[in-house]
């Protein structure tokens, strides 16, 4: 229903930007653009207030202890386990490179 068809249109201003609006509903406070922004802000605030962190029990790949985490990519229980695992990974890569060099020498390359 267009505002021209209303019997008693009420002229008002948006509470945010002061743009003149015609109230076709008694509780209308915002223009179309500001209404979208207000709804987005309200939704974001509601989600922030009602968000529940979900913790998952995982097993550390190095020491096999159980630990709680809310990060899906976390694989080690502590920074110490993470750094030990990195050192092991680097050493394994070095061993593989040395094995390849030994094989090349045996083949006569």
Question: What attributes does this structure have?
Answer:
two-stranded antiparallel sheet, 15% strand, alpha+beta, 2 helices, elongated, 109 residues
What does this structure look like?
It contains two helices and four strands. The strands form two sheets. It has a two-stranded antiparallel sheet. It has a two-stranded antiparallel ribbon with strand order 3-4. β1 and β2 form a beta hairpin. It starts with 9 loop residues before the first strand and ends with a helix. The model has no long low-confidence stretch (mean pLDDT 87). It has 109 residues and is of the alpha+beta class. The protein has helices at residues 32-50, 79-107, and strands spanning 10-13, 20-23, 56-59, 66-69.
Give the biggest sheet: 2 strands, antiparallel
Beginning-to-end CA distance, first to last residue: 86 Å
Helix content: 40-55%
Instruction: Kindly provide the radius of gyration, computed on alpha-carbon positions and rounded to a whole number of angstroms.
Output: 32 Å
Mean pLDDT: 87
Uncertain runs? none
| Succession of helices and strands | EEHEEH
Question: Can you tell me the overall shape?
Answer: elongated
Strand order of the largest sheet: 1-2
Instruction: Estimate the strand proportion.
Output: 5-15%
Structural class of the helix and strand makeup? Answer: alpha+beta
Number of strands: 4
Number of helices: 2
């Amino acid at each position: 229903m267009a505002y021209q068809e209303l019997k008693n249109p009420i002229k008002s201003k948006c509470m945010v930007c002061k743009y003149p609006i015609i109230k076709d509903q008694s509780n209308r406070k915002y223009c179309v653009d500001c209404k979208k922004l207000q709804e987005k802000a309200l939704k974001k605030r509601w989600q922030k207030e009602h968000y529940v962190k979900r913790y998952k029990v995982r097993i550390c790949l190095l020491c096999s202890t159980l630990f709680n985490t809310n990060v899906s990519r976390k694989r080690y229980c502590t920074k110490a386990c993470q750094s030990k695992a990195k050192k092991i990974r680097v050493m394994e890569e070095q061993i593989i490179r040395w094995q390849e060099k030994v094989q090349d020498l045996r083949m006569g390359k």
